[in-house]
Request: fold
Amino acid sequence: MSSQNKLQDDARTAVIIAGRVFVPVEDVETFVAEARATSYPLAAANPGNVLMSFCVEAAATGAVTVLEQWTSQDALDRHVATPEVTALLATWGTRIRNEVRRFDASEPGARSGPDRQ
Reply:
């Protein structure tokens, strides 16, 4: 097996988190900064993380795009269970409208599932 194929096997995605959250317009930049400052370093330290992205899609409406890729549900669960992510969700959970969804990509014909975040 070539090293490129090995890399692709190691990065195989089993779970995708994708969608939008809607934040009060006056808080959108603060939310994105806090989400990045909390989630990016934790995700980078988690060997099951493939991708983590928060970006302002439309500041005028408070729309923030969320995209995550994980190699397993266990890796995602470890991330969400960290005290830092738990605190972030507790702080912002009642102030945002969450339209983020979880997609199972571990088998052919990926299926969507309930919200995970």
